[in-house]
């Protein structure tokens, strides 16, 4: 297939954990600009695995994206509707001998001696090579809690690199990551990889706080036979910082569209402010979403975090 005739897709994948703030909105706008600027479809996925009951929050998030002028193609995908595909991926890894049960608590993991050359914080491998009898005993010991499922990562490989459109070459840790938690929730890393591939996403733009998860996700793509870079491109974009220099948070003042509207700033003015922060508009200039797509140049994207203060509004 000629990839020029079948452009892929970009996406934004918010967790419905509250209203989107300026940092989230700016990342969404950048993801939309990357996709629209490259002729891709733009898809939305609500990552509600942890928060299936927060559906109302997701609606408010979608309304805010629309108000900014961010549009998307097709139906919004709710991650909780994708359980069968997540289970199928775990079964596929399991039948390749790449899944094992883990009964460790966080405390067990912290207390265990780390393997030589293992990246800091990596799972120490306590449950990796237990016999069937040892596993049965461990299961019994933690009942009624259930074991988590972990990936048996390739032995001896502790790092994986990829080329990021913003960060350049990034090398990050890989380890025996959790695929499914003891409470039955499928892990973010597994779900994101399975869902992006199923949705035809080949351009992943998100906050740079997630860059360290990407090597684990690329490892999973490879083991599941899904497209890996360079077929999938990554752009991890700088976060927005609050006036104290820490990552922007709701306590930093009027940082949601609702707060800003209450303070007299319209969604169009917020779009203009975000555009200015991206070097796509002059301060105070009002811009349409189409103008932003025309002006957007991925190579000119600011590499530094944007520090927001009430004076930016
Ligand atoms: N749901 C994640 C978040 O809101 C983003 C996942 C992703 O973009 O891969 O932080």
From TrEMBL:
Domain Glutamyl/glutaminyl-tRNA synthetase class Ib catalytic per the UniProt entry, residue ranges: 11-257
Cofactors demanded by this protein: Zn(2+)
Binding site for Zn(2+): 102, 104, 123, 127
InterPro entries with a match to the protein in the record: aa-tRNA-synth_I_CS, Glu-Q_tRNA(Asp)_Synthase, Glu/Gln-tRNA-synth, Glu/Gln-tRNA-synth_Ib_cat-dom, GluQ/Sye, Rossmann-like_a/b/a_fold
A single GO BP: tRNA modification
Gene Ontology CC, one term: cytosol
Enzyme Commission number, as recorded: 6.1.1.-
GO molecular function terms noted in the UniProt entry: ATP binding; glutamate-tRNA ligase activity; zinc ion binding
Positions that bind ATP: 250
'KMSKS' region (motif): residue ranges: 247-251
Keyword tags: Aminoacyl-tRNA synthetase, ATP-binding, Ligase, Metal-binding, Nucleotide-binding, Protein biosynthesis, Zinc
Motif 'HIGH' region, chain ranges: 14-24
Entry binding sites for L-glutamate: 11-15, 47, 188, 206
Organism superkingdom: Bacteria
Note on cofactor: Binds 1 zinc ion per subunit.
Presence of keyword Signal: no
Protein family (similarity comment): Belongs to the class-I aminoacyl-tRNA synthetase family. GluQ subfamily.
Functional note: Catalyzes the tRNA-independent activation of glutamate in presence of ATP and the subsequent transfer of glutamate onto a tRNA(Asp). Glutamate is transferred on the 2-amino-5-(4,5-dihydroxy-2-cyclopenten-1-yl) moiety of the queuosine in the wobble position of the QUC anticodon.
Protein name according to UniProt: Glutamyl-Q tRNA(Asp) synthetase
Organism: Leucobacter komagatae
């Amino acid at each position: 297939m000629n990839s020029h005739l079948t452009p892929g897709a970009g996406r934004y994948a918010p967790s419905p954990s509250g209203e989107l703030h300026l940092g989230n909105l700016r990342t969404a706008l950048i993801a939309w600009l990357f996709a629209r600027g490259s002729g891709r479809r733009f898809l939305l996925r609500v990552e509600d695995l942890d928060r299936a009951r927060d559906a109302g929050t997701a609606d408010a998030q979608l309304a805010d994206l629309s108000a900014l002028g961010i549009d998307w193609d097709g139906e919004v995908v709710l991650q909780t509707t994708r359980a069968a595909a997540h289970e199928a991926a775990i079964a596929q890894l399991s039948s390749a001998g790449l899944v094992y049960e883990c009964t460790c608590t966080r405390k067990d993991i912290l207390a265990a001696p780390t393997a030589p050359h293992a990246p800091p914080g990596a799972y120490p491998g306590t449950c990796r090579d237990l016999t069937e009898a040892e596993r049965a005993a461990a299961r019994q010991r933690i009942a009624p809690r259930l074991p988590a499922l972990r990936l048996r990562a390739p032995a001896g490989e502790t790092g994986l690199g990829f080329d990021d459109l913003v960060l350049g070459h990034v090398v990050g840790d890989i380890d025996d990551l959790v695929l499914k938690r003891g409470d039955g929730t499928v892990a973010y890393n597994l779900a994101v990889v399975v869902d992006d591939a199923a949705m035809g996403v080949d351009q992943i733009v998100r906050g740079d706080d997630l860059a360290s998860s990407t090597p684990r996700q690329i490892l999973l793509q490879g083991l599941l036979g899904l497209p890996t870079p360079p077929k999938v491109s990554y752009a991890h974009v700088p976060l927005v910082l609050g006036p104290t220099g820490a990552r922007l948070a709701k306590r930093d003042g009027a940082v949601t569209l609702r707060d800003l509207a209450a303070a007299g700033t319209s969604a169009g003015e917020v779009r203009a402010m975000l555009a200015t922060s991206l070097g796509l508009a002059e301060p105070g200039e009002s811009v349409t979403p189409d103008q932003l797509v025309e002006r957007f140049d991925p190579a000119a994207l600011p590499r530094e975090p944007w520090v927001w203060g009430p004076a930016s509004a």
